[in-house]
Amino acid sequence: MTWDIIGQDAAVAVLRRAVEDEERLSHAYLFAGPEHVGRATAARRFAQALNCSSAERPCGDCRSCRLIAEDKHPDVEWVGVGGICDESEHRDHGADGSRDIRICQVRRLERVVSRTAFEGRYRVIVIDPAEAMTAEAANAFLKTLEEPAPNVVLVLITAREEALRETVRSRCRRIAFSGVPRVALEAALRERWHAEPQQAARLARLAQGRLGWAVAALQDERLLIDRERTINDMESLLAGGFNERFAYAASLGARYSRDAQTVHTTLDVWRDWWRDVLLAAAGQEELTGDPERLDTLRSHAAQYGIAGALQALAALTGGRRHLEEHASPTLALEVMLLELPLRAGARGR
Fold first, then answer.
1. CATH number of 9-176
2. pLDDT-derived band of residue 344, with 50, 70 and 90 as boundaries?
3. For the chain, does the N or the C end have fewer beta carbons within 10 angstroms?
């Protein structure tokens, strides 16, 4: 078994050297880069390689590699939003709709890393997404970073490293992940996942370097159907007035409390669509991700121009930031939608 991570050769090389030479091994790593480009897969391969019992690591076949692949290894743990803690009154935050990694989860983590590894050579803790730690949790986590236990490796995964405290970032070795080049992504879809050439080419363009998303869309066509519906919603909002925007914000805000990830996905689709509008307005149509919508993109590019597209992208960025800062979801989304450019002739009703 190889590391089997497409398009991240530089990151894998650094991690491989750390496995082969323990003098190069850091106690904490920051895997920074876009979502769906292989960060979590790299973290899993790293944990396997550190604990693999074969000569060539990771082998994928030994007991440790198999257990880590199945999320059953006693010394490898993933800490995320809605995870467990040791507090008797709220042991599982998945049941209470938590959107954070809380301080009680970090306190439990401190107790876990203080123990000797049960079975493997290294205890590996992966925190994903690291930016979900509350301020209190991040402060508590600093102690673990500043006083590392022996044979413990911490991996923080983030798509928004600027949201992490500098005191946390500065104590980690940064490993950069980037979008997978379109040619490599398209080839992987054809050769490894057996996509038809036309299908692979389209998904590679739409994915914007996110191999994980492209594979998921290949395996579940509902993702593309949902994407089309989401773009249609944006076009309807642009054609309507303020009342439509307020109503949509209320609907999306109510959904956020139940399913924040779906709302974030909606914002991601809108961001990619406005990026294509910007490219079309700038005369760079060959770089757009969705050539099947090129006529529509040209129409919106003519309507809003570069300034309007930049205004929309700024509004979406601000909206997502406010949501992640725990502003009222409906209020944050109202502000975001009202800051989108208004189509000529559209007005509040």
1. 3.40.50.300
2. low
3. C
